[in-house]
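Researcher: Let's do a round of design. I'm pasting the structure tokens now; please hold your answer until I've finished.
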């Protein structure tokens, strides 16, 4: 059992000053950016193979206006599963313009099961050990969006539903969607009166202009720009959108906590550059404006992981999607050993392990008079 500030075993875990992380996460000009991701990443390679340059931004094919799409079936009795075939893209395994699952195969239902394995295999650990640290991020964005009594809110890539629960406590009427059935099961358990569905965020199973507010917490990336148009479809005119993405990881004091994710296969680590590109200056603004949103605002969002001890950190980290990819590549024992070593270097007497990481938020509004 670990004791804060009194690690008697192993010896390398004795408290020491926090070192400056030596791991390079953000590429210099011309190099490949290798930024680890958070909850919303279990992607395979870049889709077309090869390295992604540091200058890469969001996908170039951007929608220019809100457009109506056929309404996807809900995941209730009599649901139509045809949209799952050939539409395997979810925020967790879309890569560039080609949608692939984590095993690298396309066009069947295997990927749907694999994405749940990545994020759902330790769903209870994620819900209780990892996601609670996101509460600062959730509360800050809800406040900025003015979520209040009567707000009809949709959370895209809702995970285990903590953000929905916090919005519900503010008086909002909440819905959510996620690709992992096991995370959705927890979200429904936490929010039994909310409409929470398993599905693809590119094909939201709700009518046009259904919501006043849509949120997504590190669920939409530079590789998934079409989702923003789909969000615009379900927002009412004048409705608000708030989303967050990883920001400048290189300057984040807590970037050490993400370093074990780099144990994933090289092509998967390289693909992260395109995913986190939405956090670069101007990238999110351009995407939202291209999709017809107005009053776009960029802001810094508070985010800090906290853990009682190194073992708690390792267990929480292992519950995430990026950890699953790393474990697939090097094995669980090697992953846990590397994560434990990182955490032991951060132990300080009398305080929890704390990793403050730069997160960027975007606020935007759907203009009045737009269907």
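Researcher: That's everything. Go ahead.
Model: Designed sequence:
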């Amino acid at each position: 059992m670990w004791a804060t500030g009194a690690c008697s075993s192993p010896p390398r875990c004795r408290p020491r000053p926090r070192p400056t992380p030596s791991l390079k996460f953000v590429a210099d000009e011309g190099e490949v950016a290798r930024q680890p991701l958070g909850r919303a990443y279990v992607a395979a390679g870049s889709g077309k193979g090869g390295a992604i340059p540091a200058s890469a931004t969001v996908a170039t094919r951007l929608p220019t206006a809100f457009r109506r799409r056929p309404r996807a079936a809900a995941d209730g009795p009599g649901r139509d599963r045809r949209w799952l075939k050939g539409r395997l893209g979810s925020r967790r395994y879309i890569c560039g313009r080609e949608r692939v699952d984590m095993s690298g195969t396309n066009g069947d239902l295997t990927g749907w099961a694999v994405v749940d394995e990545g994020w759902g295999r330790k769903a209870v650990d994620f819900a209780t050990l990892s996601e609670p640290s996101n509460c600062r991020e959730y509360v800050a964005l809800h406040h900025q969006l003015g979520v209040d009594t009567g707000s009809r809110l949709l959370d895209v890539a809702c995970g285990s539903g903590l953000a929905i629960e916090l919005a519900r406590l503010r008086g909002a009427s909440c819905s959510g969607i996620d690709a992992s059935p096991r995370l959705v099961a927890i979200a429904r358990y936490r929010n039994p009166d909310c409409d929470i569905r398993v599905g693809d965020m590119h094909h939201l199973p709700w009518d046009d202009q259904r919501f006043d507010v849509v949120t997504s917490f590190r669920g939409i990336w530079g590789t998934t720009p079409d989702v923003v148009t789909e969000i615009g479809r379900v927002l009412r005119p004048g409705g608000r959108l708030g989303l967050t993405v990883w920001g400048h990881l290189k300057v984040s004091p807590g970037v050490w906590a993400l370093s074990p994710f780099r144990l994933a296969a090289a092509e998967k680590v390289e693909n992260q550059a395109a995913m986190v590109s939405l956090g670069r200056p101007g990238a999110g603004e351009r995407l939202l404006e291209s999709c017809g949103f107005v009053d776009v605002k960029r802001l810094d969002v508070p985010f800090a992981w906290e853990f009682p001890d190194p073992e708690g950190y390792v267990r929480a980290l292992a519950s995430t999607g990026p950890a699953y990819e790393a474990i697939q590549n090097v094995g669980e024992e090697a992953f846990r050993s590397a994560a434990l070593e990182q955490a032991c270097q951060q132990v300080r007497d009398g305080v929890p392990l704390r990793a403050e990481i730069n997160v960027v938020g975007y606020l935007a509004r759907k203009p009045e008079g737009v269907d």
